[in-house]
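Data's thin. Show one?
=====
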Amino acid sequence: MMQEESELSQPGGAPGGQAGPSKARLLDIVTRSAGATMAVVDRSLTMIYVNDEYARWFGTVPDRLVGQSLVQVYGEEACQRFMPFVERALRGERVQYQRLLRTPYGFDEWRTICLTPWYGEQGAIEGFMTSALDVHELQVTMDALRAANQRLSSHMENSPLAVLEMDHALRLLHCSQRAVQLMGWPAVAELKGHPLPELLALQEGCELLEALRRLQSGEESQNRAEASFFREDGTEVHCEWFNSALTDADGRVASLMALVQDVSAKIQIARQQHYLAHHDALTGLYNRMAFQSRLEAALAQARGSAGVVALLFIDLDGFKRVNDTLGHRTGDEVLRVMAQRIAGAVRGCDTTARLGGDEFLVMLDCEVTREVIDTVGHRILHALLCPVALDGLEVNVGASIGVAVVRPRDSDIGTLINRADQAMYAAKRAGKGRLHYAEGP
């Protein structure tokens, strides 16, 4: 007690005239209270100082460890494991690493070991100081976090969905290998930092870009969008995007994540179903239902703009003879050829359909004049008069065409088609292979 009072009363201590402890006493206070194991080792690897905490790990007191070598304290095998770190410290490097150590209480615990070079008065390295702190809880937490991240990364890489992560400016931070394959991109390393809208060539106003911007602004926290894009090889890809935003503690958007599903096959099936529902299976022209729908739309537009719509009813001449003499397979091939020729003879804005059997319809609803109707009609007649070469045979068929011109005040589609049909029969009675206009406006 007298010694402690003497040390505490030496000059250079606490403010207000009270003296602080001596350097030796300060060292003792620090090493006893730090909660870390501390030791000083000279270049011969002999311990010249250990604190109580250090000695406690070995179930002894400091005086019994001072003067012993590291090999005596730890053993040959343990020394071989940490000697590379000791050699680095003796070369002047401050070394820090983690080790799993057995505590005096019999269980394993992670410790952070720090080796700091000890310089003498002449500046030479005379040894090193070692200290160890308990970081077990932190290490266990880090290991658990690392394992969780590895599991998450594994799920992301093995997911059938493509996974993309972007920063608040839509710059790509990470994407799974599935995303690289789906988008047709190069290696991931070449993509990081590039804006996603540029990588996908998203146009202003597209559904996906608008959805991502709503997340950027905080308007939504999650949303869904569909988008189509072309790979570099020209392949069209259709995707469904499930997007979400991650916000920081202040509520600002920090990053965005997208799970992307390839729905190209579904879109293709839907397109095929739509095509089959609106097109003739044999010729590929519009079917009757689709043609009537387009005719109704054309008439509605004509009523509003005082336009004119013309309907051409086409019936092949001599087709029954082809079916009867050469068979229905040849007849079907003739119908396909005739349909192609009709489609090639009309203008790009005209609509062509197969009504059924050997009957076809053509609607003219843009820039319709008597001259235009005559020109298109005679082009069709000329195209259908050319022989069809099939399996070494030349099949000759022609066509008769009836024309009905409708004014905006007319609205009955059935009546219009019937007028064109009657005009077609009049063309046949007049000698076939000709164009005949229906009576009346």
